[in-house]
Amino acid sequence: MEMAMTNISAPGMPVITELTPHQEDSGTTGLTVTWQPPSSPPCQPTHYEIKYYVLRGDMCEDTSSDRIMISAGTVNGSTFTFNVLELRPNSEYMVFVRGRTSSGYGDSDSQSATTGYSYPTGPPTNIQSTSTKKRSIVFSWEKPECGHRNGPISSYEVMLSNYTGDVVYHGIVSGPEREIFDLIPYSNYSIRIRAWNYELAGEYGPAIWAQTDEAKPAPPIGVKLPSSDQESITVEWMSPNPPLGKIIGYYILYWETFSNSSTPRNVSISCRDGRCSDINYRLSAVILELQADTNYSVQVMAETIRGVGDSSPVPPVVRITSEGIPSEPQALAVSSRSKSLLITWKESRYPRGRIISYTLAYKVKGKPYDRSFQPEDSFTMNEVAGASSSFVLDDLEPATLYEVYVVASTSKGEGESSQHVEEFTEPPAADELPKPYPPVIVSSPDGTPTIQFSDALESPYITHILVAVEERLPVTRRRRQQAAYGSYAENPSSYIAASISKDDLPIELTIGDNETYGIYHNAPLRDKAIYDIRTGVESNVGGKKSTLFGDPSEVQTAGVPSGSIATVVGSAVGAILVIVIVIILIIIFYKRRSNESAPTKV
User: What are the Fibronectin type-III domain coordinates in residue numbering (predicted)?
Assistant: First the structure.
């Protein structure tokens, strides 16, 4: 019997009811597709075929021009679900399902869905420092490259380390930028960032380095004063750590420790070799031109382009220089006496040690009264105790110019000499000068009175010969006469007519010749006048003088009656003789009466 054969056509189109993400325990991502059989005959395909292609890989790729259909697999006609495995995470897929009979494939139903996320397979990109300050850095970055995100990138993990590798910041950031504070100026930092897809973390990318801006430097460290001598101190120090900037120089401040008026001075150290910022290098410098045996306080400051930092250490380090030779004694002064000089001085400005003695040096510099004098070449030395500040030079010549200086000494030797001071001893006192004899006055051929002066003087200290003229005035006018001689202009009746230097002797002087001698006017004498003429000696050196006049000699000008003075003097002498004779006679008379009345011895 012949069986009848039914002609079966291609199946109808199944209906996808659900397309959801699928995650294997192994971490593999995929999609689970569920469908219903076709509703039009034949309603029961023998098989179903599942295919797909990528709409957007990693939700960022554009695949519109290059979409490749991929077969995921087939199932029998009684199965209505299928897991499409090994798909890329975070990617949108278009999934197709179609049925098959013996006549072939029917139409496909399709639906799109996005796979689940996984851990990022790439680090953030384009990491850079967008802003740097002294104590902060702003970092920015972008998401991992497309294809390595594997999810929406929910956050970023940021780790910042200093140059030694110590972590100084570690945190979770939601966005692609972060400013990190509380950093150290002029320091290098490395940043590493990784992306997170919720609970799934990616890998850190390579470290990116950045440097904070410079600031004023910190104080130098380890300041020491390891050595010194009479005029210098060696200073050692190390760079600030951290330096906070590129050190371009150092300043060494120093001052005398115990001087209230000492203004700090500085030594400038410039840097060209890069060693100034090396925290492992010990720097050194020498302070020169210091005073010996003096305590100095020292500090060091560093400098960057941002300015000079604080000094170090606080309080400063102190060191004393070695003992040296002293500077010159100060304020040397010499005051004169007749045969001695009082020398006073003050301690050296820079003693440079303990003053153990002073050397006082002197020599004769000039003798105005001695034409033949030649200055001495060598000095006479007197040693004085170190605690002294004065000395009296005795047994000197009067009216003599002396040159004096003082030198201080320490254990290192003599220092610098003081200024040289010249001073005269005072001239001899007036009572030490030889008293002149009354002048011998002779009449010149024209009858004017003349005095002859020789160059033989009784004292070597006499520098001038003086001639004084004093007119004899009536008693009623003598009150107007001065006690001391001045010039003719000051008192025409009692004046000095001439001052003659010993260098001008011998000389013949006519009294009243109307000439000037020294500073004195030898005024003409008045007719019919009587004058007392005196000669004087003067020692005048160094602005100091002593003067002594002798007894007078009489001069009468024309018109005075001859003998008038002799008559007066004779009368006075006669009267005196009469009185003396009367007194003698009285004494003789009383003596005789006394003898007559005395008893006679038997």
Answer: 10-121, 123-215, 219-324, 325-429
- Cα within 13 Å of Cα(261), Cβ side: 0
Distance from C-alpha of 19 to C-alpha of 21, rounded to nearest angstrom: 7
pLDDT above 90 (res 267):
yes
**What's the pLDDT at 568?**
40
174 and 239: one domain? Answer: no
Domain end (from 520, 538, 556): 556
Q: Please give the average per-residue pLDDT across 208-231, as a whole number.
A: 94
Structure confidence by residue, pLDDT tens digits, 523-565:
999 988 999 999 999 888 877 888 999 999 999 887 655 444 4
Segment 83-93 shows an average pLDDT of 94
For 226, residues 6+ apart whose C-beta sits below 8 A from its C-beta are 234, 236
Q: Residues 237-254: what's their mean pLDDT? A: 94
- At residue 577, the 3 state secondary structure works out as helix
Q: Name the residue type at position 332.
A: L
Cβ atoms within 10 Å, residue 140: 16
Alpha carbon distance 559, 529 (integer Å): 8
Domain-embedded: residue 576: no
User: Of the ranges 3-7, 52-56, 371-375, 457-461, which one carries the lowest mean pLDDT score?
Assistant: 3-7
Residues 418 and 436 both lie in one domain: no
Helix (H) or strand (E) holding 596: helix 564-596
Give the tens place of pLDDT for each residue, 152-174.
999 999 999 999 999 999 999 99
Using a 10 angstrom Cβ sphere, with 0-12 exposed, 13-18 middle and 19 or more buried, the burial of residue 174 is exposed
As a whole number of angstroms, the distance between CA 54 and CA 312 comes to: 70
Percentage of the chain lying above the pLDDT 70 cut: 90
Q: Would you say 166 and 172 are in contact if contact means Cβ atoms under 8 Å apart?
A: no
Please return the burial class of 324, using the count of CB atoms within 10 Å of its CB with bins 0-12, 13-18 and 19+. Answer: buried
User: For residue 406, how far is the Cα from the chain centroid?
Assistant: 32
**CATH of residue 32:** 2.60.40.10
What local confidence, expressed as pLDDT, does residue 375 receive? 86
Residue span of the structural domain in which 465 resides: 432-556
Cβ(88)–Cβ(54) under 8 Å? yes
In whole angstroms, how far apart are CA 544 and each of 229, 434, 458? 50, 18, 20
